[in-house]
Amino acid sequence: MAFRWGRGLAKVYPMFFVWLKRYMPRGIYGRAALILLLPVVILQLVMTVIFAQRNYEGVTNQMTDTVLREVELVMQVVDDAPSAAAVPATVQDRLAALDMGVTPVSASEVPTRNRMSWYDYSGRVMVARFDEYLPSFLSLDLTRPTGVHLYVQSRFGPLDLQFERRRISAQNPHQLFVYTFSFGFVMTLISFVYLRNQLRPIKRLARAAEAFGRGRHVPYTPTGAVEVRAAGAAFVDMRARIERQIEQRTLMLSGVSHDLRTPLTRMRLGLSMIDEDDAEPLLQDVDDMQGMLDAFLDFAKGTAEGEAEPLDPHVLMQTAVEDAQRAGRNVTLLPPEGDGTGTVRLRRMAILRAVDNLISNGVRYGARAEVSVLLTDKTLRIRVEDDGPGIPEDRRIEAVRPFSRLDPARNQNSGSGGVGLGLAIATDIARAHGGVLRLGSSDTLGGLRADIVIAR
């Protein structure tokens, strides 16, 4: 039985943490505030409960016991009074030092229930004490401005005993609570300001890393605690190495492409001097090599062209489609989707190159292509669909790798097939904008669906 109970408890714990995780703050400020405030709040609640039970309640019980003895003495004097009318005078003559008024009342004047404020904790303690140790207790009224009105039963009928509230409960009991919460709030505020200053360098590092992931270089200097400075310095070194690597790759491929253009130009010039029928296949080979070099150069440039600027994606895609149509490609721009408006920070030439590569692939392996733009408050999606054979799902990861050619999956008879850099360039450009290139199957045309998704 214990083993089964242990297994059940082991299953409940993960479910509890999964449920709790849904309500946890997502940001570092919220989690830090929770870590800071939760112990303070719990400590204050524990101290309040302990004070209320051990001190405040205990003091109230002691003062109530004193009043109980005085009430018993008053009741003895009342029993000695000759009549109900003589009760006030008798009590005043014999117990004037108690400073307690006694008034005979009718049964209809006695409250049917105890009267007190909802926050009157000591009043509840008094009611419980009187009800337990005073047999003649009827009810208690703590709402009168004249003081406490205690209703008891005597041999002459109900009596109303009046005395000051300070005789039965501590004065200003709320002061400790006010002091506790006030100082707790002040200390929490001071701690939060200090914590904010400690978290600010982490936020700056996160913004610099996010900007670098989107292809932007944001000035950043490591600051803050030793550990944050170490992480910041490591990020600066990593960013510098990546930038040097990208620069070296660009220079290398650009240099290779430039050096190969000269012999290709000489070959083209030499082939132009021989018979046209014999030279046509060789000229086609030269054109193919020229196209490969252009693709290599585009891949080398990557996302280095220009800085990101606010652009209207609908106008930008209109330009991309018009350029493709002038180049003789069968492509159509569909009506805008989504309810988003405004601009998105994009690299104009890089996005145009990525979309042009996707359109080129679509019309190369199919008959036509369609371009659509979905803009929302949080996302930009540029979709290019074609009516070709598409790419199998198990080969889509391979398709976006540089120099990857999936001719068996695509239609080899519709073009030369390229050099395998079109999707790779589009992927790099999408990543440089903090987005992603997603490949799927077109529901409308039946071919490949390529989505460039970028967060706004």
Automatic annotation (TrEMBL):
CC terms in the record's Gene Ontology section: plasma membrane
* InterPro entries reported for this sequence: 2C_sensor_his_kinase, HAMP_dom, HATPase_C_sf, HATPase_dom, His_kinase_dom, HisK_dim/P_dom, HisK_dim/P_sf, Sig_transdc_His_kin-like_C
Q: What does the record say about its membrane topology?
A: Multi-pass membrane protein
- Name the Pfam families for this protein: HAMP, HATPase_c, HisKA
Tell me the domain of life: Bacteria
Identify a single GO molecular function assigned to this protein: ATP binding
Q: Where in the cell is it found?
A: Cell inner membrane
Q: Where is the Histidine kinase domain?
A: 255-456
Q: Which PROSITE patterns match?
A: HAMP, HIS_KIN
HAMP domain: which residues? 196-247
Alphabetical keyword list: ATP-binding, Cell inner membrane, Cell membrane, Kinase, Membrane, Nucleotide-binding, Phosphoprotein, Transferase, Transmembrane, Transmembrane helix, Two-component regulatory system
Q: Where mainly located?
A: membrane
Q: Which residues form the signal peptide?
A: none
E.C. numbers: 2.7.13.3
What name has this protein been given in UniProt? histidine kinase
Species this protein is from: Sulfitobacter pontiacus
